[in-house]
Amino acid sequence: MLSQLSVKRVFASFLLSSTVWASTYIVHEKRESTPSGFTLLSSAPDDQMIDMRINLSMGNRSGLEAALEKASSPTSPTFREWLTKEQVENFAAPNTETKEAVAEWLATFNITSTPATPAGDWIKFTIPVGTANRLLKTQFGIYNHTDSGRAYVRTTEYSIPSDLQAHVKAVHPTTSFNGPLKQRSPITAVSVVKSTSLVERRATVPADCNSTIIPSCLQDLYGIPTTLIKSSTKSKIGVAGYTPQNADAADLATFLKEFRPDLPSNLTFTTELYDGATNIQDGTQAGLEANLDTQYTVGLVNGIPTIFEDIGYTTKDGPDDGYLDSINYLISQESPPLVFSTSYGFADESALSLSLTEAYCDAIMQLASRGVSVTFASGDGGVASSPGLSCEDGFPPTWPTCPYATLVGATQNVPEIGASLTAGGFSNYFPQQSWQADAVNAYINKLGDTYAGLYNASGRAYPDVSAQGGTLEIIINGHSDYVGGTSCSSPIFSSVIALLNDELMSAGKSPLGFLNPWLYANPQAFNDITIGNNPGCGTEGFSASEGWDPVTGMGSPNYAAMRTAAGL
Ligand SMILES: *[C@@H]1O[C@H](CO)[C@@H](O)[C@H](O)[C@H]1NC(C)=O
Ligand SMILES: *[C@@H]1O[C@H](CO)[C@@H](O)[C@H](O)[C@H]1NC(C)=O
Ligand SMILES: *[C@@H]1O[C@H](CO)[C@@H](O)[C@H](O)[C@H]1NC(C)=O
Ligand SMILES: *[C@@H]1O[C@H](CO)[C@@H](O)[C@H](O)[C@H]1NC(C)=O
Ligand SMILES: *[C@@H]1O[C@H](CO)[C@@H](O)[C@H](O)[C@H]1NC(C)=O
Ligand SMILES: *[C@@H]1O[C@H](CO)[C@@H](O)[C@H](O)[C@H]1NC(C)=O
Ligand SMILES: *[C@@H]1O[C@H](CO)[C@@H](O)[C@H](O)[C@H]1NC(C)=O
């Protein structure tokens, strides 16, 4: 019986592959050349196993998009009626036709996939490179990521059958040349005082918020409340951490004792580990970024539960794709944290292919639809996005530019000015969004011909908002250190959102959720910052100005005004 079955299957496969698909493959994605930072070492051996994922088209993407627009537009009668997990899954689940078409195609190569998300919009399987080459009519190579020295199996072009084009959103890994996700450099701002003990430093350096930011500076500057939150709060905040960054609980305790002595001394973060992450607790292995992210959330949110979402490198699902895993993990949770802050990124937008970028953005859209505010540090290379990037094709846009994420730029000093390192500009992948059109076009009009051809005036503009990223004091391995960059800005801004969510939900209201349409509709809720510019690519960069600008977005938080704008 068994052998008969397999004979039938092989026969059916043969039929399908020869009559339906064999001659109709067309190119799905292509890169002109190997991206900089990678070199081709050799073709990948046929018997090397590769973990592949295919992202299927959502059954009803336009339905989800429309539902999110209704929930997030301040003028909508159903404003902030976020969707349930089930509602989102109903939109996201691929339709039967899509699932069957893809399953049949894979079956012709004897491939069985398993769902990787509850909605089944993302499937995965492990196959030899030889099979992957035939499946995608390509030749996978081994590429050296010269920064990390790690080997990646990738290709510059692949094809799929023409009648599957509409069903398949992205195939990964293929043409996305992403190295490991890197933290936005928390630039060590004042290296001379590094490693000075706390006591010594306090004797010699008086608190001065213009030169050094500590939590009380932010509380004063933005009007952030200091009252301990009730333990019954429904607000939660998540911060991403990527290996090898470890968030140190002992350093957090030292930080709180020093800067928030008013809070219970046992406040800490909880940790969710995935993809082999460990979050080693050893002061000498504490990470600047991870300590910054946990200290400037727990240190500001007054007891709101804070989750360190710690993502490892090597996964059974593929190398260095933790960013996909983390978003899918949050999507699969019944009650994900309502704010999720990430201070890591790829160097620029073009590191990931358009289709993978869209698929990732769709995942963020699903979270946003459920009332999660997804925030990212905008990047630290000014108009060049990341320090050291090439500007051959104009100002390279940052990663991610997904319109469903809120990008946070940096300010410095008191009174605040735009920080020169802030990545700000315009996407080449996503168009300008309707909720930002007025604010952004007003800026573009002021700009006139300046930088014409160097930026994409029809692209999604960023950052959306900003917060301090000048010189922040953190504790690392028991000592003070000083860091700056948009890495600081995202957790600070996100903490403000978590506090507002607590107030809203305590009052029986919905959380803020997908922020962008609301932010742009409420300019009065932010401190408009009109001084500063973000040089890069051999230019002075963009200048801050009245209203939205590509250095400080709509401005920095004004807690009282945001509270009012939120309906409290
Ligand atoms: C998609 O969702 C919208 C909004 O709920 C609905 O009107 C439409 O019929 C749905 N389309 C499909 C193909 O299910
Ligand atoms: C197909 O998969 C089955 C189960 O894994 C395996 O036993 C069989 O050898 C495979 N056949 C081919 C032609 O690869
Ligand atoms: C990968 O690149 C790094 C840096 O250029 C180099 O040191 C290493 O030898 C390369 N690895 C291989 C296998 O070529
Ligand atoms: C704040 O610091 C900057 C340099 O970091 C300095 O130029 C400015 O004058 C200072 N402002 C005040 C009010 O001290
Ligand atoms: C922290 O201490 C307080 C008492 O000061 C106690 O009520 C609370 O349960 C403790 N929390 C944790 C997480 O241990
Ligand atoms: C896969 O694509 C669908 C849309 O086609 C999206 O809803 C989903 O979130 C994507 N998954 C990932 C992990 O990007
Ligand atoms: C500019 O942005 C638009 C809208 O997203 C896009 O269609 C276009 O391809 C972009 N132009 C370039 C040169 O990337």
Automatic annotation (TrEMBL):
Keyword set includes Cell membrane: no
Catalysed reaction, written as an equation: Release of an N-terminal tripeptide from a polypeptide
Name of the protein in question: tripeptidyl-peptidase II
Domain of life: Eukaryota
Domain Peptidase S53: 212-568
SUPFAM superfamilies, per the entry: Protease propeptides/inhibitors (SSF54897), Subtilisin-like (SSF52743)
A GO molecular-function descriptor: tripeptidyl-peptidase activity
